[in-house]
């Protein structure tokens, strides 16, 4: 409820509407050989943004498909030149990732080439993560006021590489440090109009969000000990339970760390936030959505397969004949079209049955305190699109809403 000082998030999106929107944009993407996907993503974002409300005011997404398309082209050209130079440098030192390895020495050199190429791309992955978030912020408005982020993508990329290295060296024990510091870096450079966000709190508090991960590790360790002590019954019992518990633990960490970080964000020094998402709701929504999606796709696949089989075996086709016979063309076309439409339906169904309900849960469990202070915030200058989400799309990490 809204008492004038506290506002609760609302979400009014409809699963059927989003499904058919995703189906239409998916078909147009297929017809245009993938080009329309930038405009399709824009239409879906506008629908989702407009379905989210706070204090009766809807959010607005102002990005365009053309911005994203041009940014993608720019990023592809840059990465092609960059990776080409990397490959030339590898050839100079006798390393290659293209030739078929023959002796063991050449195989080692090829592995080294793969490793160096991956390391060379890694900074751009983190760069793309920051730029994608900055673009979405810059193209989001509420009450007509723009959000925004500072230009600090390379600073984020280098810090992310350092924190990931620390996390790996610590065998995951410093995951809360990485989560907190990277989120703080982005939050402290985010704005709503003339008011700046600040991430408060302590990174050590996130260890409480990892309790299910620690339980899973204990179960896996006990299962491994059971194998070492030649007690297979104990291992058979604990190892699967530990593996499932680890998945639950990772999801729980993501949900609860989001809640903690959201509750410790402050806007303009006075506006605070509340967040209370529930791990069991997120997992339950995912499982139910996946079950319904699997059942629906099974029915569709069965129907299309039956039609294709009827057309194939109901015609006079010589199985010993070579090549593609004219009578085979209709069932082949139906099979290919059915396969492609099934992929589009799977994506649209996941969006409507899984993504949107989980997003709704996050939005409706988010609240804002000290709403009157928002009236003092003024408009900020528009941020240029630059490469939009070009690098994120080119590196295949920008498919998310």
Share of helix, binned: 55-70%
Model regions low in confidence, pLDDT < 50 over at least 5 residues: none
Major sheet? 10 strands, antiparallel, barrel
Tally of alpha and pi helices? 11
The protein's oligomeric status is: single chain
Number of strands: 10
Specify Rg, calculated over alpha carbons: 25 Å
Mean pLDDT: 86
Distance between the termini: 28 Å
Give the strand line-up of the largest sheet: 1-2-3-4-5-6-7-8-9-10
Give the ordered list of helices and strands.
Answer: EHHEEHHEEHHEEHHEEHHEH
Q: Structural class of the helix and strand makeup?
A: alpha+beta
Portion in beta strands: 5-15%
Broad shape: globular
Structural key phrases:
10 strands; single chain; 401 residues; globular; alpha+beta
Summarize the structure.
By secondary structure, this protein is an alpha+beta fold.
Structure write-up:
This protein is of the alpha+beta class. 63% of the residues lie in helices and 10% in strands. It has helices at 15-31, 37-51, 65-92, 104-138, 153-169, 175-187, 211-228, 232-263, 279-313, 329-364, 390-394, and strands at residues 6-11, 52-54, 57-61, 140-142, 145-149, 190-192, 195-199, 265-267, 271-275, 366-369. The chain has a 10-stranded antiparallel beta barrel, surrounded by 5 helices. It starts with 5 loop residues before the first strand and ends in a 7-residue tail after the last helix. The mean pLDDT is 86.
């Amino acid at each position: 409820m809204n008492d004038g000082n506290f506002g609760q998030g609302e979400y009014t999106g409809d699963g059927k509407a989003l499904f058919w929107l995703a189906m239409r944009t998916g078909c147009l993407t297929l017809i245009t050989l993938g080009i329309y996907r930038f405009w399709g993503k824009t239409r879906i974002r506008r629908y989702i943004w407009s379905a989210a409300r706070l204090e009766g005011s809807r959010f607005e997404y102002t990005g365009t498909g053309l911005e994203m398309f041009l940014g993608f082209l720019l990023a592809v050209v840059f990465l092609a030149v960059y990776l080409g130079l990397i490959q030339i440098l590898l050839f100079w030192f006798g390393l290659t990732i293209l030739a078929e390895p023959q002796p063991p020495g050449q195989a080692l050199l090829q592995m080294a080439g793969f490793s160096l190429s991956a390391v060379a791309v890694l900074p751009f992955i983190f760069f793309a993560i920051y730029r994608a978030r900055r673009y979405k912020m810059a193209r989001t408005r509420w009450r007509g006021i723009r959000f925004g982020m500072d230009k600090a993508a390379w600073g984020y990329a280098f810090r992310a590489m350092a924190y990931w290295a620390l996390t790996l060296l610590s065998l995951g024990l410093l995951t809360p440090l990485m989560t907190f510091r990277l989120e703080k870096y982005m939050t402290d450079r985010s704005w709503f109009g003339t008011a700046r966000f600040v991430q408060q709190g302590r990174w050590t508090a996130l260890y409480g969000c990892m309790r299910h991960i620690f339980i899973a590790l204990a179960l896996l360790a006990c299962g491994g000990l059971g194998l070492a002590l030649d007690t297979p019954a104990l291992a058979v019992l604990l190892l699967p339970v530990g593996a499932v518990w680890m998945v639950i633990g990772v999801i729980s960490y993501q949900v609860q760390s989001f809640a903690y970080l959201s509750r410790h964000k402050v806007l303009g020094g006075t506006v605070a936030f509340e967040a209370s998402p529930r791990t069991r709701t997120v997992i339950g929504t995912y499982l139910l959505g996946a079950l319904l999606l699997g059942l629906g796709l099974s029915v569709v696949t069965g129907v299309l397969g039956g039609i294709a089989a009827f057309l194939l075996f109901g015609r006079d086709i010589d199985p010993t004949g070579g090549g593609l016979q004219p009578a085979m063309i209709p069932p082949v076309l139906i099979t290919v079209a059915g396969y492609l439409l099934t992929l589009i339906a799977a994506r649209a169904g996941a969006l409507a049955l899984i993504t949107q309900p989980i997003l709704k849960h996050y939005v409706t469990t988010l609240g804002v305190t000290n709403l009157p202070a928002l009236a003092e915030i003024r408009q900020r200058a528009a941020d240029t699109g630059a490469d939009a989400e070009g690098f994120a799309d080119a590196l295949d990490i920008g498919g998310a809403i």
